[in-house]
Amino acid sequence: MPRPKTLPDEDVLDMALAIMRRQGPDALTFAALSAGCGLSASTLVQRFESKTRLIQAALSQAWDRLDRLTLELAESTPKTPEGAVALLVGLSGDYGGIESYADDLMILREDLRDPALRARGAHWRGVLSDAIDARFAGVPAAPAGIGLMMASQWQGALLWWSFDPRMPVQDYVRQSLDRFVAAFTGSSSGP
């Protein structure tokens, strides 16, 4: 089968991210990506210049998607504590099990190593915290900065779930965040 002459960067970067998720960032090479997408390794080098830039481009695309999802959820969930839970449960995704979640932690390592990607994470933290803060605006017992506190609780819930993943991650996150909300509102956001 002949090699494709063109393939949009978005598709190429999706394949690069898939390689990193399956085999780890160290497995992403221009040769491996070439085998996956069908473009020649030299074409990929011309597009992305170096492995570092390829990883940065793939992870930047992933951050773009997370930014869009966060905005969609912030626009579609109610501005209530229950809406904050729904927003974070929506961001929890469906990892498909612990192996997939663990693989994504290898990707996070790359985000933490790169100053530009770390800056993306810091910016997203602010956007997410502000969206959660807005959902507690009418709650008298909610302390200043509750958005970052709840986002931190969410990240902790994801981590604790990973040590004992007996239930779907969204269910575990919802239970954890319902308890968090109850601490400030006196009621659970669950059914």
Automatic annotation (TrEMBL):
<feature type="DNA-binding region" description="H-T-H motif">
    <location>
        <begin position="29"/>
        <end position="48"/>
    </location>
</feature>
<protein>
    <submittedName>
        <fullName>TetR family transcriptional regulator</fullName>
    </submittedName>
</protein>
<feature type="domain" description="HTH tetR-type">
    <location>
        <begin position="6"/>
        <end position="66"/>
    </location>
</feature>
<dbReference type="InterPro" id="IPR009057">
    <property type="entry name" value="Homeodomain-like_sf"/>
</dbReference>
<keyword id="KW-0804">Transcription</keyword>
<dbReference type="Pfam" id="PF00440">
    <property type="entry name" value="TetR_N"/>
</dbReference>
<dbReference type="InterPro" id="IPR001647">
    <property type="entry name" value="HTH_TetR"/>
</dbReference>
<keyword id="KW-0238">DNA-binding</keyword>
<dbReference type="InterPro" id="IPR050109">
    <property type="entry name" value="HTH-type_TetR-like_transc_reg"/>
</dbReference>
<dbReference type="GO" id="GO:0000976">
    <property type="term" value="F:transcription cis-regulatory region binding"/>
</dbReference>
<keyword id="KW-0805">Transcription regulation</keyword>
<dbReference type="GO" id="GO:0003700">
    <property type="term" value="F:DNA-binding transcription factor activity"/>
</dbReference>
